[in-house]
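FAQ

Q: What does a record look like?
A: Structure on top, sequence underneath. For example:
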């Protein structure tokens, strides 16, 4: 327990480590513009405002309320309600951040300006870009935005509509139905997320529709925290979950939304009662349209400054960048935001970025009532990219540890409260 608490407090306290006094000294009105008010962007705004009082911080985010993906799976299970995972920007504004509820429609890296959909243009000295992901419509044949209204993805926060839709479909399903999931190949947002979702759907079905089954069709051969998840499924939901890996024809390549059919690579057609299709992904469109992404659709960045390799002055954090072996997680978006902001401001002032950064990730997953598991990793710049710090981190032990599982569910709640307070709290 102590180790986990220490890691958490360390992770949320890196601000102090990164705020080099020479960098924090006043210089007139440097303009830091942040695109995206989610995990990366809201964290960056908080850190910039707290650490550099003389810098003008502007946050561009179209939505007036941000619905988190973390804990969305608990909403799907009926263990939380959407308002409990939705946050407004009043406290961000009260800290002195200028929040513009508009969409960035274009970036001119040479002129250092952002064009907003509302028509305004904003000049910046440094830009932090954290726009998250785009779903690759058509990455699975037949799966487009219209199809997602029948076969929800519930994989981007949006207004919570997709999460609510999946919940409603599960509630409407008859006992004995099959819930199908299509899970993409790497890389994608939140590697353990689909398996937490399977667990949360199973916990609902066990309670409300115990004759039902889950068919998880996966493009991969293995997944994050796999032995721990599979232990939990065997203990809590025996016989309910079938997971089909890619090498056993698990890769979904086509869907028929009206018939609710998921078709795999070798032509097997699975008709299901409810389908949750998580399609392949890329960086959000603003990053791609600005010419920042590589052929795979993700933005390559410098591992110390997070400056895009394709454009100076634009620091890209969160899921939009490619930073293996770091996962695309809210915690990584939060943790790296401090280094990106400190680097951006140091470079804008002609200084050096803070050296030797460490990036933290703790990823909790809920497997059932009072049943949590976690993995912790520490990363740092190394080689041409990022490396895991040797002999760091850890994973929940396997075996029969009910008290540990109960405590990890409590720590997960504490993690969620700490990170959302940091982003959106007073
Ligand atoms: C089911 C699920 C469970 C998860 N659970 C966890 C978890 O337990 N722990 C964890 O650490 N992570 C978790 N994640 C992952 C986490 O949600 C993401 O890694 C995180 O949201 C990434 O932060 P981001 O800033 O890159 O993107 P986001 O948080 O998605 O924020 C991007 C923001 O940018 C805005 N935006 C996009 N384009 C523009 C534009 N052109 N102009 C202005 N704004 C724009 C969007 O409106 C959005 O608000 C989970 C994900 C899922 C799907």
């Amino acid at each position: 327990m102590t180790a986990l608490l220490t890691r958490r407090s360390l992770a949320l306290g890196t601000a102090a480590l990164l705020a080099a006094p020479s960098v924090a000294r006043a210089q007139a009105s440097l303009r830091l513009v942040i695109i995206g008010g989610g995990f990366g962007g809201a964290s960056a705004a908080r850190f910039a405002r707290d650490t550099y009082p003389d810098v003008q911080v502007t946050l561009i985010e179209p939505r007036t309320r941000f619905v988190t993906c973390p804990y969305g799976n608990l909403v799907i299970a009926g263990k939380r309600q959407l308002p409990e995972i939705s946050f407004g920007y009043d406290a961000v504004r009260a800290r002195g951040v200028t929040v513009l509820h508009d969409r960035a429609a274009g970036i001119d890296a040479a002129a250092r300006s952002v064009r907003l959909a509302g028509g305004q243009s904003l000049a910046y000295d440094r830009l932090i870009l954290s726009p998250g992901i785009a779903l690759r419509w058509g990455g699975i044949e037949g799966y487009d935005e219209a199809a997602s209204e029948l076969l929800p993805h519930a994989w981007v926060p949006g207004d919570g509509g997709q999460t609510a839709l999946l919940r409603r479909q599960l509630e409407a399903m008859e006992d004995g139905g099959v819930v199908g999931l299509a899970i993409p190949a790497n890389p994608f947002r939140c590697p353990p997320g689909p398996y937490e979702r399977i667990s949360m759907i199973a916990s609902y079905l066990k309670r409300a529709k115990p004759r039902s089954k889950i068919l998880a069709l996966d493009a991969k051969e293995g997944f994050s925290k796999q032995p721990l998840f599979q232990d939990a499924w065997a203990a809590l939901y025996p016989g309910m979950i079938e997971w089909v890996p890619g090498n056993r024809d698990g890769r979904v390549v086509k869907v028929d939304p009206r018939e609710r059919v998921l078709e795999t690579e070798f032509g097997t057609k699975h008709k299901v009662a409810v389908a949750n299709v998580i399609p392949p992904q890329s960086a959000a469109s603003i990053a791609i349209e600005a010419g920042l992404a590589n052929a795979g659709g993700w933005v390559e960045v410098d591992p110390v400054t997070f400056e895009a390799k394709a454009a100076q002055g634009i620091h890209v954090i969160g899921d939009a960048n490619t930073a293996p072996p770091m996962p695309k997680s809210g915690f990584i978006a939060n943790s790296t935001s401090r280094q990106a902001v400190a680097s951006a401001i140091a470079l804008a002032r002609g200084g050096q970025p803070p050296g030797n950064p460490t990036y933290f990730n703790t990823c909790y997953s809920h497997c059932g009532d009072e049943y949590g598991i976690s993995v912790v990793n520490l990363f740092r710049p190394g080689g041409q990219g990022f490396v895991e710090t040797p002999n760091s981190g850890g994973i929940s032990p396997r075996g029969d540890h009910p008290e540990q599982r109960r405590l990890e569910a409590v720590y997960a709640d504490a993690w969620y409260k700490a990170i959302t307070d940091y982003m959106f709290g007073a």
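Q: Is there anything notable about this one?
A: Residues 35-41, 60-63, 66, 69-70, 72-73, 103-104, 130-132, 155, 157, 189-190, 193, 197, 284, 286, 318-320, 328-331, 333, 363-364 surround flavin-adenine dinucleotide (CB under 6 Å).
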